[in-house]
Amino acid sequence: MTQDLAPTVRPSADARAHTDGWWRSAVIYQVYVRSFADSDGDGIGDLRGIRERLPYLAGLGVDALWLTPFYASPQADGGYDVADYRAVDPLFGQLSDADDLVREAHRLGLRVIVDIVPNHTSDQHAWFRAALADRPGGTARERYHFRPGKGERGQLPPNDWESVFGGPAWTRTTGPDGESGEWYLHLFAPEQPDLNWDNAEVRAEFDSVLRFWLDLGVDGFRIDVAHGMVKAAGLPDIGLSEQAKLIGAQVLPFFDQDGVHEIHRAWRQLLDSYDGQRIGVAEAWAPTSERLALYVRPDELHQAFNFQFLTCDWGAAPMRQVIDESLAATRSVGAPTTWVLSNHDVVRHATRYGAGDEELGLRRARAAALLMLALPGSAYVYQGEELGLPEVVDLPDEVRQDPAFFRGDGQDGTRDGCRVPLPWSGEAAPYGFGPGGSWLPQPGRWRELSVEAQSGDPRSTLELYRSALALRGELPGLGDGEMVWLDDAPEGVLAFSRPGFVCTLNTLGAEVALPVPGRPVLSSAALEFAGGTVRIPSDTCVWWAV
Ligand code: GLC
């Protein structure tokens, strides 16, 4: 017998209303604002577009959304270069649109997390302009990291740090007289000068910015570069020439310094002073799971993206190891683990897992989604992964916007290919993204991947996600809690149980036959049953009720 496991249950509002620490089990959907939905036809997604599509997210079954930066910005790094933390960029709407979006989301039972970018501002921020206008040693410069250069005429950067986007992490200033002056630090693009978190004004300003958005009603913050705000004292040379990676585990004097935790503790107190369980989630690239767990100690942030899981190779042994290490590390501090497979900075996992074979990649991506959503803790879904979107690997150079692309080989690959606007409906580009075009071109075959094309097709990736999220809300064993490995699984197969539930993942390139462990409730590919045996195809994940 072949069995397709179509959607079975829909969550009731009650089943999804987590009372004790909603974030511990939450599935949070990342909205990359530029690329989600465009309401005004300029080809760039905006806040009104998101508001109009909120019923889609509520129907998908997620608990919350995270909005990438929509603040006033020259867009040198997709909005991660903020010129005014309290204003909405006209590209995305106005403050009243943010307000409407938060209210409407809440009405639909969705929480809203916004991005906060505290490591650096835009070079167009009033503070940085004042700093440039100030003299060396002036108070306006103390909010950033200004230093004299080395060499006889100060012509060399103050130290050997490299920007994550490639090239030196320092840029020399030119005074009003045209003379070269001090250098300033930017771990990212030159348009993103790093703030000096030893400066009391910087701390006070961010407290005020957090309060501004909390007062507007947001449910928390995704903290950009949460591991970078504090630099090692004296800004020491690294002494190695290897390029620093954002997505990496190198030990560096500007990432994961112990001093950042004091800032997060202070922010936690601020969050706790508001009602309604407002949360902080760290975008922190730490060398180990143990170092990452420090960010989610009881008096610090609520979540930290598990990038060890994101970067793990496909396969039972490496995946089991990462799962064990992450659970052990977060358990040691009493926090949930926060699983993530993709975001706006990495190659989409449907492509990553395929290593050149799209069909294989999608198969594994579907299986990985069921694995992730069955593991203890919370999970993030990056927009479009529920459609099984692949990375767009053939964007013409002239449409690219990622600063990393223009600054050499700083990042692994480039990041525009995962930021292509979503296909919603219709036969022709921009596939319902908006009434105009789309800021990055969508491949023609995305017509078949649109929300409309996949809705109602029980074999589609979209319906797989809808079913998984619905079941996650219904099955009490899922979400926060414990899991136990079932060690009778054959090599290459991961099997674990949770109360009333078993998950089996065949990571092999061939099918495996196993004794049926329970009632199948969802599978990433069709199963075959004979007697008491189930044949699980290659690269397939199955959920069982027991
Ligand atoms: C974070 C963002 C990334 C951005 C960088 C600098 O890693 O996710 O998109 O380029 O910070 O702000």
UniProtKB/TrEMBL annotation:
Listed SMART domains: Aamy (SM00642)
Q: Which InterPro entries match?
A: GH (IPR017853), GH13_cat_dom (IPR006047), O16G_dom_2 (IPR045857)
Swiss-Prot/TrEMBL keywords: Glycoprotein
* GO BP term, example: oligosaccharide catabolic process
Superkingdom of source: Bacteria
Residue stretches making up the Glycosyl hydrolase family 13 catalytic domain: 30-419
**CDD domains, per the entry:** AmyAc_OligoGlu_TS
MF terms from GO for this chain are:
alpha-amylase activity
Q: Which Gene3D superfamilies match?
A: Glycosidases (3.20.20.80), Oligo-1,6-glucosidase, Domain 2 (3.90.400.10)
Please give the family membership noted in the entry: Belongs to the glycosyl hydrolase 13 family.
Q: What is this protein called?
A: Alpha-glucosidase
